[in-house]
Amino acid sequence: MTRKRFLKVAGAGAVALAGGSLLGCGENGTDSKNWAWMGGSESEEATWSETFAQMREAGIDGVLLKQEDPSVLREVVPRARNEGLEVHIWMVTMMRDENLESHPDWYAVNRNGVSTAEDPPYVDYYRFMSPCVPEVRDFLADHVDTLAQVEGVSGIHLDYIRFPDVILPVSLQPKYDLDQDRERPRFDYGYHEACRDQFEQQTGTDPMDLDDPPANEEWVRFRHGQITQVVTRLADVVHGHDKMISAAVFPTPDIARRLVRQDWPSWPLDAVMPMIYHNFYEKEVSWIEVATRNGVAALDSDTPLYSGLFVPELPPDDLATAARHARAGGSAGIALFNVGNMTDAHWDAVSGVLAA
User: Fold this and answer.
1) For the whole model, what pTM was predicted?
2) Could you tell me the sign of the dihedral formed by the alpha carbons of 22, 24, 28, 34, in that order?
3) pLDDT, position 26
């Protein structure tokens, strides 16, 4: 099945399953859907069905569920589907710590030669693996293959599919007492031996020998390409099960490339959910429309964009305004981060927009 044909079939099936009101059609001409990111811990089991019903009533079509345990998924997925929701597994991709002890050599290395297995940047959980390591790709492909086989799951949603932030969003820098006016070696990743060897084979130059690595376009594009290759591998696995693959990405193509080495317009995805968290970039709510329009323009006509909205910084009235800005920018819908931050007032406010 071609990617275009797969999207058409999967999208039609999802609309038939979900029913109800939609946001309209995005500029890419795709059927609209609305999404919400949601934790899926066993401790929430008692309220799963109630939460799913509230989401569906408000106009949400699909849940991006943060749960990777197949046994838990087999319990929660039928409940979501019974309420008319699609379920896509929200999977943390490059930032995983389960291989720290057994395979510390899998982890990303910065320009100082320090691995995230030894000393991660910013916070202790930033244990990113290197996309250049073949065994990392095999591990991720095997894991995705297992998740995609869970009955009732409609797709896989990739998160943290990137390098560590070489530069943090501007509003987050003071939290870590940083002023990142340029790329600094401590936060500049991609210098794992596997990356260096591959780049040297392609160009004849070890990136550690570059006079100004951040200014070397070939080296910058190489790292974009490494993440793209991981996405392509995982997309092949997911599509092999006739399911959809999407990703949470940084808000615009330019910001994504510059901050975390994501060249997401080139990825073979069935949908993208840019995290257009305006407050992270010290922008007004109206910026959501601008960022959405930039993303839509960068994608091919087959790929819908769903604008990710950061609920903790959006009072109910502002959330409704943000959803309208997303629609004005050409989005095919919205994605709410996250269900746990939604009050009854938030649901009431957003449902009015989604039903319009």
Assistant:
1) 0.91
2) negative
3) 54
